[in-house]
Design goal:
This protein is α+β, with helices and mostly antiparallel strands. It is built from eight helices and eleven strands. 23% of the residues are buried.
């Protein structure tokens, strides 16, 4: 009996040893192939599975990216775009442009008789028509816009405009002076161009815009002289201010008009010659003398 107990204890100890060896050997149960997913081996934690899932997610988001470990994802090659358009000759100026170069363009066109206004620096319908006429004259494409070819051709046949040509003092070109304006000190006033030129011995010293009386109160035409000057004059008939008045015929005078300055040519005088440039007429008032000539003509 004692020997049997010893044998039983020995056999039990051997079984425990064998069981312990099996648990620490890394062996695991594997189901037959095709019957289900394999279980994760002991020791394979979540930390090892995260990089694999991240790489899989990145690859699905960017199919062209590299999945090699330790390397950055390569961007996918961009798809080939449409072919580049053929180069277009650049425009320097066109309708709607506003610049000093446009002002020079207008002055050069005016030199050729193709622009009948003073330069403004704004490229509008009148400038477009003038450019088209120049292009037709030179055998260029009649676009009405200024490209390099048009600008080069225009510069080759015109002179650089002076500052006076670029920035005239009147909104319209001065009219051709009457022969009576070519000698002495003269206020040379043209009804055709709506301008007054202060001239000394045929030379224009200054110029300004003017307007005249209506058909019911016309401004007289002819040759007169300044017979009276009144700096702060007020009309005794109409009770309106007539600053810097230079009287030349009865109650008619050259003077500053606030209405002309505000409304332009939408109004008319009662027979006087209105000036809207206050600084200009103030300077003219100081320069003129009693006895200076006034010539009003068409």
């Amino acid at each position: 009996m004692r020997m049997g107990a010893v044998v039983r204890r020995a056999l039990a100890a051997s079984a425990v040893t064998a069981l312990a060896a099996g648990l620490t050997s890394g062996c695991r149960y594997e189901p037959p192939r095709g019957t289900g997913p394999a279980r994760t081996a002991p020791g394979a934690g979540h930390a090892d599975s995260r990089p694999a899932r991240a790489a899989l997610h990145a690859k699905s988001a960017n199919p062209g990216a590299s999945a090699q470990p330790g390397k950055g994802a390569r961007p996918a090659k961009p798809a080939a775009g449409p072919a580049a358009p053929a180069p277009v000759r650049p425009l320097l100026m066109a309708s709607g442009s506003r610049s000093g170069q446009v002002r020079e363009l207008q002055a050069r066109l005016r030199e050729l008789g193709l622009f009948d206004r003073n330069p403004t620096g704004f490229y509008g319908s009148v400038t477009t028509a003038s450019v088209t006429s120049f292009q037709a004259r030179r055998g260029l494409a009649r676009t009405g816009a200024v490209d390099i070819a048009t600008w080069s051709a225009l510069r080759s046949v015109t002179a650089p405009p002076s500052r006076t040509a670029l920035f005239p003092t009147t909104s319209k070109p001065l009219g051709r002076p009457d022969p009576r304006c070519l000698t002495g000190r003269v206020l040379c006033i043209s009804k055709s161009s709506d301008t007054l030129a202060w001239m000394i011995d045929g030379r224009v010293v200054s110029a300004m815009d003017v307007r005249f009386g209506s058909q019911y109160t016309p401004t007289r035409e002819g040759s007169f002289t300044v017979y009276f000057k009144s700096r702060d004059h007020v009309s005794t008939i109409y009770k309106t201010a007539m600053p810097y008045a230079l009287f030349f015929s009865g109650g008619q005078a050259v003077h500053y008009s606030a209405d002309f300055a505000a409304r332009g040519y939408r109004g008319a005088s009662h027979g006087c010659v209105n000036v809207r440039d206050k600084a200009g007429i103030a300077a003219l008032f100081d320069r003129t003398r009693t006895g200076d000539k006034v010539v009003i003509y068409r």
